[in-house]
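Local shape tokens

___
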Amino acid sequence: MAETSSPGNPSFTLADDGAASARLIPLAPAVEVRSPRSGRAVAEPGCYETARGFFIFAAATIIAGAPYFLAQTSHSNFLIYFAAALALGGLLAPAIVARRLTSKSPATVMFGERWCTFAVFVAFLAFYAVTMFEPSPYNEQVRQAVAFIHGHTYIDAPNSFLEHAQIGPYSYALHPPLPAIMLMPFTAIWGMNTNQTEFSVVVGALDIALAWVLLGRLARGIDVRVWLTLFFGLGSVIWYETVVGTTWALPMNTSLIFTLLALIELFGQARPFWVGSWAALATLGRYDLALAAPIYAILLLAKGRGIAEIFEMVTGYLAVGVIFVGLNEARFNSFFDQGVLLTGPRNAPVFALRYLPGNLYTVLFMAPTVNGTFPYIHPVFSGQALTLTSPAFVLALRPSFKRLTVSMMGLAAVLVSIPSLVCYANGFAQFGTRHYIPAFPFLLVMMAIGMPRRTDQLSRILIVVSIFLVAFGVWHVRMWGFG
């Protein structure tokens, strides 16, 4: 990687994208910062001031929101104090950071980007910690992690409230194993006392930090990255699913980590082995993400990778396949996961085209109820249309579908949504449309590609409206439940 710049103009980094030619990715314009030792001006990537803004956002969130939300909960929330310490450290570190940012070398640019990514993580860790719900009893993943620690696959599943597949005397989890695998180090220490909701908050903050990195890989400017990051973290139901951290929410958020990593690699060095490995791990959180594999392969080919290199993707999918098959054989004596089949409708198929109209209604038209009880508009138990929680996703339709990347990202979003569109259940107890979160990273890429160099007025309005709608839903469910 090399860097070039001219006086008064933004700097550029020369990045190899795996194809025969290289491309210039514009970085944010440099800003002037004074050296803490000499007082002389030094060049610094625009991420520096942006990072400071995110640290201030984290501190302000904690100061303004923590007293209220702590009064509403009956448990101690150490994540608030942890986030406050990180935010304070970030705000007190400018002198140290400025010493590192004394040139425009590739190492300096990398440090600035990492610093800003860390700031995004701290900001959303603080925000999600402050708005976190009470620890949920619906903690299937903690129970599964404890089971793995003790060397078996069946879980302790109370019949009174935790859905599960019952085979003889044994109860088995219904959801993919990725969150439970990630929870194992924590359950090894705290066992069943592990707080799954707090784990979800950390995962959610990591999701948004990775979204920030992905937007940088797409060569978006600081302004666009900030707006789209705020939308992804606050203007989508990722916020709600993160702060509830239930059995049904956690698989969505954990799979996002690895989908985002796969896309970061795809739009970065585009190494097939790593794209395949990250994408395969995402399928352990949501099986439907396996349908995106051909899209990754096509885009890798378009970036100049050969057929032989594309087959390196298979390694990750084979490794994950061994885990998938082994777990299913141990639980169900079957190649496939039988959990949903065992607990689904008795006299109807689990997946069928007959469910498509109802699921499309959920995605596009399902609205909250309106009545005379404050606050008059009430989210319903069965969900709320994507158009009525995150209307800014319409910006994914802005770029030309004649561009291969855009059309492939759109196709990926459709493919990973197909199982949910033809499933008998639309998600039930949810705010928004939880089942379609796996498609969000692909839609985010499309939104970023279609953005002008600076965020236009229409985009800002749609993002602000999305944030308001999701904030209202989170507040309503937390205060009064569903309407």
In short: The chain has two domains: 1-128, 131-480. Residues 131-480 form one domain. Residues 47-71 form the longest helix (25 residues).
